[in-house]
Every structure is written in C-alpha cells, then in structure tokens.
Design goal:
The complex is a heterodimer of chains A (242) and B (477).
Chain A lengths: L1 H56 L3 H23 L7 H20 L11 H82 L17 H21 L1
Chain B lengths: L2 H28 L5 H21 L8 H26 L5 H12 L15 H16 L1 H8 L4 H11 L12 H25 L4 H12 L17 H14 L3 H9 L9 H23 L5 H16 L14 H13 L12 H19 L7 E3 L2 E3 L1 H26 L5 H12 L20 H15 L3 H8 L3
Classes of the chains: A mainly alpha (242), B mainly alpha (477).
C-alpha cells in the first residue's frame, strides 16, 4: 500500500511540475527572446542612422534623410517591443535610459547638418555625434546581455524543473521493482520453501511411519498444518490398530 | 547465510538514515526549497524498505562472521545509494555518477566534491551533505548497533567486523559499553564544537554543518572557499583543535574526560602522533616563509591548518596548497598517507599502523643481529602478537598496492601524474583534497566519470579497511 501511495505521489508530482513548466516559464522565455530580437534591431537601426549622419556630413541631404527616417522608425518599433517585454527588475530602468539617450542622439541629426558648420566637420562628428552613438550602443548591448543571461537562467531552471519532474517517477519505479524482488524473496522464504518442504515430506511419506519429517522451523500456519497432518496420521494409526 | 537476518539489520540502517533525512526534509519545508520533493521521496523509500524486512524476520540473537561481513559491506553500499538519491533527484550539477561520488565521499568522510558552486545548493541539501559525514564518521553500523534490539551476540560480531583489531586496543570495555563511549564522545564533541563556532561568529547552521564535518573528519563545507570564506582566526583555531582531537582514539578521549589511567596525556602513541604533526607544521611553515609566500605568522597559521586538516583526514582548506612549493606538498602527501589514529573517525592507513611498521622494522634489524633472540613489540604497554603484526604488515602492502593500481588506472585516462597520484591516495585515505586539478580549492568535477567511479571504490575500500571487502568476496554461501 505504501509503495502504491509512493507511486501515486510520484505521478502527481510529475504532472504538477510539468503543468508549472508549460505555463510560467515558456512566457518568460518568449519575452526574453523578443527583447533580444528588439535589441538586435535597435543596434542595426542605430548603425544605419550613423551612416545617415555621415551622408549628411558629406552633403548628401536627400539620401541621408531617407536612411535616417527609415532607421528611426525601425528603432522606435523595436523600442516599443522591448518596452512591452520586460522580464527582469532593472530592465525597465535600462530601457528608459536607452529612450532618453536616443532622444538626445536624435536631436543631433534632426537639426540641419547640410549647409551648416557641421557639414564636412569631422571633429563635430567624432566628439559629439559619434560619442552619443557609442553610449547608446553600450546601453542596448547591456539590455541584450541582461536578456541573454535571463534566457540562460530560465533554460537552466527549465532543465532542472524537468529533471525534478521526472526523477521521482523514475526512482519510484526502480523502487517498486526492487520492492517486488524483496517481496518475492520473502514470499519464497516464508511460504514457497516451507510448502515445498511439506510437499516433499508428504511425497516421501512411508507407510510404515506415522510422522512427517519436513524440517520446517517456522512457527506459522504452515507449521500448524504440519502438526495437524501429523495428528491426523496419529488418529489414522489408532484406527488401524483398532 | 540467513539473508532475512541481514535484511533486517539493513532495514535498521535505512531507518536510521530516514531520521536524518526527515530533519533535512523539515529544513526544506520551512525554507520552501526545491529539494523538498527529493528529500521526501528518499525518506519514504528508506521507511518502506527499512520497515518491510522487520515484518518477516523474527528475533535473532547471533550473527555469523559471514553475515556480519555482509551486513557491514552491504550496509555501507546501501547507505551510499540512499544518500545519493536526494542529489540525483534534485539535479543541478549532479548527474548519476556525481551524485554517487558526493554520497560516497560524504559517508566515507572523504570530503572530496564534484561541486563547483556549493553555495547554490539549498540549505537542506547542504545539511544532508554534512549529515552524511556525521553518520559515516563513527560508522553507520556502530549507530545501528546501539539501537539494535535482541542482538547481544550479533552486536559483538558486527563490532568486530566494523572495527579493526588495533582500533579496539584502547577500549577496555564490553561491546555495548564501547559503542556507548564512541557515541557519547562523538555527540559530545559535535555539540561542543557547534557551540564554540557559534560563539566565534558562525551562524548556527554553518556551525552545525562544520561541526559535523570536523568531528567526522570529513571536510565538506557550506562555502565554496571552505574555511577560507570566514577569514576568522578563532574559527580556524577551534576547527584545528577539534580536527586534532577527532584524529585521536575515542577511548583515550573518554579516558581523559573520566580521569582514567588510559588517557591522552599518558599515551605514547598520542605523544608521537602530535610530535610528528608538529614537526610537519614547522617544516611546511619554514619552507613557506623562506620562499616568501607569507609572513612568518601567516606561514605558521596556514601550515598548521593544512597539515592538521590533511593529517587528520579532514580536508578543510584555508588556502590553495596547489601553488605551494613542492617540498611542502610532499610533506602534506606524507600526512595523506599516514592519516590519524585508529579508534578515531579518520580513515586511511592510520598512524598506529605506521608506528607498528617502524617498530616491526626495528625488530627485524635486531633479529638479523641476534637470530636466536626473542623480541616483542609493545604499543601502549601491550604486547603485539605476531598475528596482529603480520596482519598489519599485510594491510600496508595491500594499501600501497591498491593505491598503485588506482593511480595506474587513472593515468590510463590521460590524467596527469600529480592529480592521479594525489587523488588516489587522498580518496583511499579518506582525506579529500589532493594536488594538481584536485587541490584544496579545486574539485573532482573535471575528472572523467570512470575515474570518479574508481575513486569512490577507493573511498569505500579505505573506509572498510580493505580486509572486509576481500572477506565478502571470499565467503561461501
């Protein structure tokens, strides 16, 4: 009964653990995955914006503006995705920082560059625009690292939980198998062997004797059976004499 | 062999484990830890398999030698199997072989680990890990003997199987009294050390765990950096004192407490043991100081801790000895081979055997000079008979042979010589850390699975003192 109980508990634990796995963890994994994707898109958009600024510096207004407009939209869309998929405590803070830095960075290229002192001014690009670009890139990389680490942690947790869901069942099954061997051993020792001894004694029973010699040492029902048979034989002997 | 009798005693072994598993389970429950289910299942398995044989087996007063050997050897193996279940079910860094390694290392009080991040384990598993040391320290069978009912003669047989002839030399009592003395000294020392560690600044939890590991001469810590984590000289001093004490014959400790004439201060063996330990400390400290590793006081502090830790087969660490000069490593390896005294919780070759070996060599030299002479070897004012002398010499040969074979097997797996050599001797001696990749601040995780398994066999052979295992395979049905 205890073993059946153990197997039932093991099965229930496994089911509960698997149910937990399928609900909570998968959504966290999805969110992390989306945030990593958004960070990659933001980085790509930012690189293109940097190229757009360089085109404006070269005086190519039309081409520069087109690239900047497209990449700006791309960046803002990715930022919205990141804002909607926050999984870690400090992630919201980091996204706000990225947003803030982006606003400052955007100011650098929304104001006119062509036909101003900035056109062809490599010092302005190096010391102001490119510095802000690097800072922003650092923050986005940080966001990506946080989500990658979270993804890894979650995957490890999933692996451990999966392991913990399966192991009680495996151990219980092995336990049940071993227990059945033990049970067979005791059944053999307690019942089968004494019964075989009794059977052998009955088979070897010589008509001249009125006592079975089974060598059963236990003091249980089988031993009682032997005593009863011997008494029956005694009664039969008395009847024979009469 | 009456297997039902063997199973009944093994049932007691499982039930004894269940008591400690239940305490770990309570810790897991109160902290809502992920180890709750693994501990619950292991406890249930222990109870089911422990109680079942008692339903069928009747009263048995006596036990044959073969049955005794079977109980002792299989008792240790079953205990180690049960001990690994919480780790295996919990997962984390544990796979099957690593869980087995950690369990065997715990029960045999070796203290080697495969864990890279010990602190990531739930508190309940950390407690269970230290508990395996404590159960194994004095010997699971000894604990069971105390609670075994209707078994006066069985108790004598099991005690004779579990304890070597030399171990029993300083116990001048009957079997049951000897067991009681062992347990009283063991529990008393554990309680006292926990209290002192708490006073020195450790938390109760860390205090209990470290006391379990010290008195059992195990070496499992709750911290990744072992005792170095605490950076507290008082904690180090307390642990050193108790490590040294746990390496001494428990009969002599009991004698000292009760004012008997068989006490630590009158024992030549203890004097020699402490003197050699002191000499080792001085040699290591001098070398460290001369080589500009540390200041003189730091050299003495680190040398004392490491030599006592290894010399008593505990294996705690305050520094990484792998970076120490080769000379100091060789001195520490000597202590890894020598180990502590018989009748203590330490494993391995034992100081008494080394002492007897030296005396035997002296006797042989005298016999060469005076072939007709009759020379007797005396230890603690007792004459050692030729049979015990031969038995001890043969044990030393077997010990060296086992360690050589293990080293050889490890080197076939392309493990470097220093790692293979020190890992073999450290596991056979139940010391714990070695050198190379398995140094005091390293772990055994990097070794191949087969190497880990071989080393666990080494640990069991070291704990069971080889003879019992050989006897098991030579007894007839």
């Amino acid at each position: 009964m205890l073993l059946v109980g153990l197997l039932v508990v093991a099965g229930s634990v496994s089911v509960l653990e698997f149910m937990k796995l399928s609900t909570s963890s998968t959504s966290i994994l999805e969110n992390n995955h989306k945030s990593i994707g958004a960070s990659k898109t933001m980085l790509e958009a930012l690189e293109r914006e940097d190229s757009g600024i360089l085109l404006l510096l070269l005086g190519k207004w039309e081409e520069g503006r087109r690239i900047l407009g497209e990449s700006d939209m791309m960046f803002l869309e990715a930022l919205t995705v990141a804002q909607n998929n926050i999984t870690k405590d400090n992630e919201a803070e980091l996204i706000a920082d990225i947003q803030n830095k982006y606003v400052h960075y955007k100011e650098k290229w929304t104001r006119p560059i062509v036909d101003t002192f900035k056109e062809g001014n490599i010092d302005w690009y190096q010391n102001i625009a490119h510095q802000e670009f690097i800072q922003l890139k650092k923050s986005i990389n940080q966001l990506m690292t946080i989500n990658q680490e979270s993804l890894y942690e979650e995957a490890t947790r999933l692996k451990d939980n999966g392991h913990r869901a399966v192991m009680p069942s495996i151990i219980s099954i092995i336990g049940a198998i071993l227990f059945s061997f033990l049970l067979i051993f005791y059944l053999d020792q307690q019942f089968i062997i004494p019964l075989k001894k009794l059977l052998k004694a009955v088979k070897n029973f010589n008509q001249g004797y009125y006592q079975l010699q089974s060598s059963i040492k236990s003091k249980d029902e089988i031993n009682q059976l032997e005593i009863e048979i011997n008494q029956m034989l005694k009664r039969a002997r008395k009847n024979d004499i009469r | 062999m009456r297997l039902e009798v063997v199973f009944k005693i093994l049932g007691f072994v499982l039930l004894f484990n269940a008591v400690f598993l239940f305490i770990a389970l309570m810790i897991a429950y109160s902290n809502q830890e992920s180890s709750l289910i693994p501990l619950l299942f292991t406890t249930l398995i222990c109870i089911i398999f422990g109680l079942f044989p008692m339903v069928f087996a009747g009263k048995h007063e006596s036990l044959s030698f073969a049955e005794g050997i079977m109980v002792v050897v299989s008792g240790w193996v079953i205990t180690c199997v049960i001990g690994m279940l919480p780790y295996l079910m919990w997962g984390g860094e544990f796979n099957l072989i690593d869980a087995w390694f950690e369990s065997v290392s715990g029960y045999t009080t070796t203290g080697s680990t495969i864990l890279n991040d010990i602190e990531s384990l739930p508190k309940s598993l950390l407690f269970w890990r230290s508990t395996t040391h404590w159960i194994g320290g004095v010997g699971i069978i000894i604990f069971v003997l105390l609670i075994l009912p209707h078994a006066r003669n069985a108790r004598i047989t099991l005690l004779n199987t579990e304890m070597s002839e030399l171990s029993k030399s300083n116990f001048h009592y009957k079997a049951r009294t000897t067991i009681q003395i062992l347990i009283v000294v063991y529990v008393g020392l554990t309680f006292l050390e926990t209290l002192l560690l708490r006073l020195a600044g450790m938390s109760w939890f860390d205090g209990i765990n470290h006391a379990f590991a010290t008195i059992a001469t195990g070496g499992f810590s709750t911290k990744n950096n072992s005792i170095a984590y605490f950076e507290n000289i008082w904690i180090e001093v307390i642990i050193m004192f108790f490590m040294l004490l746990s390496g001494i014959h428990f009969g002599l400790i009991f004698g000292t407490i009760t004012g008997s004439r068989y006490n630590i201060f009158r024992s030549k063996m203890v004097r020699s043991y402490v003197m050699i330990m002191f000499l080792g400390i001085i040699l290591v400290a001098l070398k460290l100081f001369i080589n500009d590793f540390y200041s003189w006081s730091e050299s003495l502090r680190f040398a004392s801790f490491q030599v006592i830790s290894v010399g008593t087969t505990t294996g705690f660490a305050t520094v990484d000895t792998a970076i120490w000069p080769v000379f100091t490593q060789m001195v520490i390896i000597y202590f890894t081979i020598q180990c502590a005294m018989t009748g203590s919780t330490s494993g391995g070759l034992k100081f008494d055997r080394v002492y007897l070996f030296i005396k035997s060599v002296k006797k042989q030299v005298r016999l060469i000079k005076h072939p007709a002479g009759v020379f007797a070897i005396k230890m603690e004012n007792k004459t050692i008979n030729d049979s015990l002398e031969r038995q001890t010499m043969l044990f030393i040969v077997l010990y060296v042979f086992t360690f050589f074979i293990t080293t050889l097997l490890l080197t076939t797996m392309d493990i470097d010589l220093m790692t293979a050599f020190s890992a073999s001797i450290a596991t056979l001696g139940n010391v714990g850390p070695g050198f190379g990749n398995v140094s005091s601040m390293g772990n055994f995780d990097s070794l191949p699975n087969l190497a880990k398994f071989i080393l666990t066999l080494n640990m069991l052979l070291g704990r069971l003192e080889i003879y019992s295992v050989i006897a098991l395979f030579t007894i007839r049905k």
